[in-house]
Structures are given as C-alpha cells and as structure tokens.
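Backbone-to-sequence.
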C-alpha cells in the first residue's frame, strides 16, 4: 500500500510540475467579427479548454488609425454570445507600451537594431516579394555594416528594424508539421517600431505572449511565416516560445480569404437570424461542435 501511495504522490507532483496550458485569442478591433475570426477563436478556445487550460483574450489595438473601442466592445459581446468565456481580465496592447519599450531597449543595447529612413515606396522598389505570400522582404538599404553592433539612430524620422542573421529557424507546427525558415532570405530585417512611433506586430505579440505565459498559439495559416520571426525574438529575449498550431483560412465564394468586407459572413449579419450553435456548425465538425457544447 505504501508503494502504491508513493506512486500516486509522484504522479501528482509530476502533474503539478507540468506547465499549465494557456491559449489566447488576440483580435484587432478594426471591424465586426466574421466567420474566419469565429473559426480561429473557437479552435483556440477548444484547444485550451479540452485540456483543462486557460484561455485569455488580448485586444491588439496598437494600430491607432484603424482600431476602434466600439469594435473591441462588440467583439467581446460576440465572444460571450458564442459561449467562448475567457480567464482573467481582457488585456489591451495599447496599455502595454512600457513592456515593448523595455524589450526594444534590450535589443538595441545588444546591437541588434538600427534606424531605417526608407519610405514604403523606396522599399517596394528595392525589395523583392516573398515567393509564396507576396510579403515584401527588406533589401537592407539602411542596414549598417558589421551588425550586430550598437549604432546611433538617424536624426530624421525613422523606423526601428531588427537585424536578422543568415540562419534557419526550425519548428514543428501542430497542423503543418516541420518548418524551416531562413531569416535573411525569407523574412529580412523586420520592423519593431514604425516611423510614426507605433509598435510593430512582431515585437508586441512576442513580448505579450512571453509575459502572459502563453503556451500555445492557434491562429490562421497566413501567420505561419511570422512564427519564425517570433521564435527568433523569443530566443533573443530569453523566453521559451509557445507551441504553434496554424489553421487553414476560410474562403469566400470567390475563393478569397474571408475579410471584414464580407458582410454576409459577419456576425453583424448572422447574429440577428442565427443561434450560436448554427453559426459554429458552419465552421466546426460535428465532433468539435459536440465538444464545444460540453465545455461551454
């Protein structure tokens, strides 16, 4: 009996030492949720909840020109209507600038950043698009020689870029399998802070996921390449990256990815004439829908 109890105690201790699963949904409040957003949200929620994990909501409202508080509030009401409850308070990127500033300062002190005065037009002329998604890869016009090294920022208005080495980042995506991305060829030196002072997506997302203890990221496949950039930032900042699970994008009748302009597929149109079950049945398998009904 003593031996049996010791095994139980050891198992309980091992369970306590296992990292708590913590997922997140991090939408931008630039319009009403559509079915593509719903699909990403419910897949992330199911992944965390089905394994007893936490699920947080983070409003990515650092795009000051496009983000609207009313969109954010409506988004939260839509999540509640869908039965996708979250843990803890809602996080707002617009209130977390001090954390991004600290991370940028650390990277700059290590000589990994430089100022870039290139305009969008100059970048488009001097750079080549990524072969698969049309992303523009910076050609390095403002990159100082001998990086990494600390360099003084230019006097004129400028963005801040992260210098990336010619090396591969490897990771295994839960849905897309093993990935290998060369930072220099497929990403290029990427922006951490825009020339207008706004924080760039890659830095803000990485810092938030690190400090919030996110252990898994379930999101659209259009961000698969971004995982490599974020994993590299995790490494530079001394954090373990989360597990990534990128999911296929939902398409409209024309074969294009759903966007906020597809009003017929937005909750603005769907909520008045549907139930949450009917909406989710359009993006979930019967087994997934049954799991949502069980967990909500």
């Amino acid at each position: 009996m003593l031996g049996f109890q010791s095994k139980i105690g050891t198992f309980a201790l091992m369970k306590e030492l296992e990292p708590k699963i913590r997922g997140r949904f991090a939408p931008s409040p630039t319009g009403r949720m559509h079915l593509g957003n719903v699909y990403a949200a419910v897949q992330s929620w199911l992944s965390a909840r089905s394994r007893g994990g936490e699920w947080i909501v983070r409003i990515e409202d650092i795009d000051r020109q496009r983000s609207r508080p009313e969109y954010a509030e409506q988004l939260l009401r839509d999540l509640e209507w869908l039965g996708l409850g979250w843990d803890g308070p809602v996080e707002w990127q617009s209130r977390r600038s001090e954390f991004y500033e600290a991370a940028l300062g650390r990277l700059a002190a290590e000589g990994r950043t430089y100022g870039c005065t290139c305009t969008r037009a100059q970048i488009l002329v001097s750079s080549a698009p990524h072969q698969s998604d049309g992303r523009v890869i910076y050609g390095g016009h403002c990159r100082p020689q001998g990086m990494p090294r600390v360099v003084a920022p230019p006097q004129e208005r400028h963005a801040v870029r992260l210098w990336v080495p010619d090396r591969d980042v490897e990771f295994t995506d839960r849905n897309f399998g093993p990935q290998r991305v060369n930072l220099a060829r497929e990403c290029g030196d990427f922006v951490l802070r825009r020339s207008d002072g706004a924080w760039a997506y890659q830095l803000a997302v990485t810092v938030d996921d690190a400090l919030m203890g996110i252990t898994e990221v379930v999101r659209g496949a259009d961000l698969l390449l971004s995982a490599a950039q974020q994993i590299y930032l995790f490494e530079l900042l001394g954090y373990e990256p989360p597990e990534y699970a990128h999911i296929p994008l939902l398409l409209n009748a024309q074969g294009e990815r759903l966007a906020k302009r597809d009003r017929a597929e937005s909750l603005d149109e769907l909520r008045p004439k549907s139930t949450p079950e009917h909406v989710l049945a359009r993006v979930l398998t019967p087994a997934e829908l049954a799991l949502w009904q069980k967990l909500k």
